[in-house]
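Dear colleagues,

I hope this message finds you well. In preparation for our joint manuscript, I am sending the K Homology domain-containing protein (Naumovozyma castellii) sequence together with its predicted structure, so that both groups work from identical material. I would be grateful if you could confirm receipt.
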Amino acid sequence: MDDEKYLIEERARIERLLKEEVLEMRALMLDETTKLIIGDGSETIRQLRAESDVKIWFSKQVYGNEHRILFVKGLAENVAQTFGSIARILAMATSPNAVDINAVHVEIKFLFPNPVVGRIIGKGGLNVKEITKASAAIVKKSYHFLEGSTDRLVSIYGVPNSIHIATYYMAEAYFKTVAYGIDLSREIPYQPREGPVKEVSEIIIDRSDTKSPTLYAVPQPSIKKRRRSDFSDHEDDVRPGHLMRIPNLEIQSIEPSKSGNLLSNITKVVTYPDKYSSKVIGREGTYINMLRESTSCSIRLKSPDDKEDLAIISIRGPPLCVDAALLLIAHRIELSKRLLDE
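The corresponding structure tokens are as follows:
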């Protein structure tokens, strides 16, 4: 009897929070999507604010990062209604010729602190099943924190009305987390960061060979390359500044994708002087594991067959990812050279 009374009181408390308390919900948006939501002369975002009586704003644009954070603050139903309207804006952009915009499926990626994500999913996935059943939306969560934060992504895929309903249920999960006394102020929210500072001015992909595009680094003008090659007793050829190939690595073999699709996997086997292996691998494999994670490539070290002074690495993944891994390895070797020279 006491348990039943407690559940009734808890439900009443959650209902009160949903109707009376203001909450802030966040979503990760591409720059292109941000422009759609703001609209010409900020007309669209002003209309959204007026229709739902909510506050809407975006994080600042960060150099090198294609995402911004959308903030919507207001009562739970008003916030849910706003995201339903945003879903319609996205639907009109992606399917302008659709007969019924309300039947077009779109995806919105929400940001929540880890404890709230746990409440959204529920024990054994019970809560997320309830959300899916009530809204007819597909709900997916990320398994990892976003960089520098305790936030995780919760992706909602469905028609605008489904996203409206699912958003309300997630607001309910947020208030349940608060009602259970969990201090969300200790959580670290995700903030978009600047992209990596490049030592070259531009990266160009040569698409002439679609099965295995070549990555070139475009340095600043007037670069002269007069360093001795690790694979020859002769000085390197002076290449045009706008077509410098990746240094420090020698590609031994390439296994192209059978379909020629840039998303299909290829394998490249490269060699480099073995004296730099410790830097490429990193202490206890930290650097090479970072490469695997950041490029989504399968990277394997192979024992040299006859030349003990050369290390061999096999890299498998989509062409662009493989070339990115090659560039990072070449940069790591270049840093090692400078340290040895000093």
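For the figure legend, we might mention the following. The first strand starts at residue 22 and ends at 30. Residues 46 and 203 are 39 Å apart (CA to CA).

With kind regards,
E.M.
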